[in-house]
Amino acid sequence: MDDDTLFTIGEVAERTGLTVKAIRFYADRDIVAPTTLNPAGHRRYDTAALARLELVRTLRTLGIDLATVRRVLARETSMTEVAATHADALDVEIRTLRVRRAVLRAVAAREPTPPEMDLMHRLATLSAAERHRLIQDFVDDTFGRYAANPAMVDLVRAAMPDLPDDPTPDQLAAWMELAELVQDSDFRDAVRRMAEYQARERAAGDTTGLHHDLTEAVRTQIGAAVTAGITPGSAAAIPVLDALTARYASTFGRPDDPPLRHWILERLEVADDPRVQRYWRLLGIVNGWPEQPDMTPVFTWFAQVLRAATT
């Protein structure tokens, strides 16, 4: 081979941007061997070797390990496969860094204790499947024992926490609170009581599903009454109550009579747990849903009017 086509190791370093030490290292590891040695034993590289060294430099800059670099140069694996694998790995690493950033921001905002910090990190780094499994376990443990309203069970099962890859401190804090809530034994007992009540109602012949229109009517009419300054024990509350019980009677196919009012009150008392509202609010924050109105004051007002009317 013509010596004019060969480069010294110093010239290779200058052309590739690698150090002389790195070029020797790759030669000693049989990753890119010199093309030849001159009579004095000095390494010489041709243009093909330069191209291989430049490829090595690029792959190493991208974080590709030496074993994979060796396989690429030996054509044991393709650049497409390597690129896809490492792009996936980078996605995981980027998500991890984003979660760590969110944890640090939450720490800066809340000043948690070391155990709380540890819990924050562990909950934040759960995979989407692990987060969903945590909620599914909660649903199985509470609704799974009873033949509750299937529409409600389907809704709870479908509403999974989808923490984004780059969560805000509020989303991270909401997810941590939600994870703690669904593992709280008292909350689980309360939800089981709701499921058991629904199962009794289904056994008694209630085949209705969810009642979004009815709930909206309750929210609208009671909201207007509260805005107007109507208190639960006042005479002005009676027409509001009459309109609502008539709506319940129509929805459930029952007569509008005193037993209906006792039945409505029982439904409200069974569902009267602010933690249920908190569950849905936290889930909404995690998932970035539009904020929904808090129904707790509405149902409290409704229950107070019913008690006054049925005593």
Folded structure, characterized:
The structure is a single chain. By secondary structure, the protein is mostly helical. The chain is 69% helix and 2% strand. It has a 3-stranded antiparallel β-sheet with strand order 1-3-2. The protein is rod-shaped and about 110 Å long. 21% of the residues are buried.
Task: Considering the chains and any ligands shown, give keywords for the structure.
311 residues; mainly alpha
What does this entry show, briefly?
The chain has 311 residues and is mostly helical. It has helices spanning 9-16, 20-28, 47-61, 66-73, 79-110, 114-124, 128-142, 150-158, 169-182, 185-203, 212-227, 237-252, 258-271, 274-287, 296-310, and strands spanning 7-8, 36-37, 43-45. A hairpin with a 5-residue loop joins strand 2 (36-37) and strand 3.
Give the helix/strand layout.
Blueprint: E1 7-8, H1 9-16, H2 20-28, E2 36-37, E3 43-45, H3 47-61, H4 66-73, H5 79-110, H6 114-124, H7 128-142, H8 150-158, H9 169-182, H10 185-203, H11 212-227, H12 237-252, H13 258-271, H14 274-287, H15 296-310
